[in-house]
Amino acid sequence: MNVLVFNCGSSSLKYQLLTMGSEATLLAKGLVERIGLKEGNLIHKPEGKSKFELVQDIPNHGVAIDLVLKALVDSEHGVISSIKEIDAAGHRVAHGGEYFKDSAFIDEKAKELIASCCELAPLHNPANLEGILAMEKLLPGLPQVAVFDTSFHQTLPPEAFMYGLPYDCYEELRVRKYGFHGTSHRFVAHKACDILGWKIEDKKIVSCHLGNGASVCAIDGGKSIETSMGFTPNEGLLMGTRTGNLDLGALLYIAEKKNLSIEETNKLINKQSGLAGVSGLSSDMRDLENAAKDGNKRAQLALDMFTYRVKKFVGSYTASMGGVDLVIFTGGIGENDPVSREKIAKDFGFLGLDFDLEKNNGLRGKDALISKEGSKVKAMVITTNEELVIASDTQRILKAVH
């Protein structure tokens, strides 16, 4: 089965074409940027062939996806001979609300429910839905599956997902913790257990997805029981440009004193805060580590705040599960930044985690144990692959449907 995977943003889309057999094989991947703007561009990377780039006006997602389909069958840089060789499309959808507890076959009812969640994820769901509708128009009858960032966290108990607000805020406005990065947390937990030869149903895992967006998840017996992102991806950890946890009274005070509109306040907590806001320098961990080495105190403060908060969440989630067997590091920072991993995990001896400085040092982008032999609690770096999860789920859902 050839599955075309899409991750559609408001002005961009990423894609991969994978053949799903006993093992998945990547045929091509690419990126379309500046959708809706002049001089949009397609970067197409077929496996075993030269990269292809195209610059032209790309007014909407339909035009963008049409360019992707043409690139995939092109005589020079294509990887299939006919569009008919695409068996299904899998879409990353940011928000499934309380409707979707698993990935779902896309029918009329699913589209209605995805649309109803647009107000919960106004920056993401409309674009995700556009991609689905564009594929429907370009390739009528092609089976499509939606894979939701939120569905893995639908196993959270009420005491974890509810906020201390008047109950009607939940009943009428659907305000609760939903959590995100679920596709990644689910994938790395299963992958780690496969590597270790463990049954996930018997294990307690804390998964740390650390990147520009970051979250921690407590996984007990293969189910998410707590996660750090909330109603929006702003809750939880300090991130690249997001505040993470913040006293709401402080936010109201700032908004009043600076006379900020709702839009300006939203921009403050999502685009101007986090590592970038504290350091005044950058949201990129590499820039901050270099600046800290040169004596930049605010860069060092931002780094310390980031690792301290991850450490707090790992500890609290261990308590929420009554123990932990494995701590996972994934995402751009988790997979590639030994310094951050060391600062987070080196003091977890009290949990039974004997961290291995030597194994951790210099490790980037590889699946590996970073705890010592005999450590009661394991620590691992696990590379995530959300596109593979989407393709696998697409195959699984379609088998169940047919």
UniProtKB/TrEMBL annotation:
GO biological process, one term: acetyl-CoA biosynthetic process
UniProt KW Membrane keyword: no
Cofactor binding description: Mg(2+). Can also accept Mn(2+).
Record keyword ATP-binding present: yes
Any one GO CC term of the record: cytoplasm
One MF annotation (Gene Ontology) recorded for this entry: magnesium ion binding
InterPro entries recorded: Ac/propionate_kinase, Aliphatic_acid_kin_short-chain, Aliphatic_acid_kinase_CS, ATPase_NBD
Binding site for Mg(2+): N7, E386
Catalytic reaction equation(s): acetate + ATP = acetyl phosphate + ADP
Gene3D superfamilies reported for this sequence: 3.30.420.40
Active site, renumbered: D149
Binding site for substrate: R92
Cellular compartments annotated: Cytoplasm
Enzyme Commission number, as recorded: 2.7.2.1
Keywords assigned: ATP-binding, Cytoplasm, Kinase, Magnesium, Metal-binding, Nucleotide-binding, Transferase
Site (Transition state stabilizer): H181, R242
UniProt superkingdom: Bacteria
Function: Catalyzes the formation of acetyl phosphate from acetate and ATP. Can also catalyze the reverse reaction.
Protein name: Acetate kinase
Source organism per UniProt: Labilibaculum filiforme
Organism phylogeny: Bacteria, Pseudomonadati, Bacteroidota, Bacteroidia, Marinilabiliales
Gene that this sequence comes from: ackA
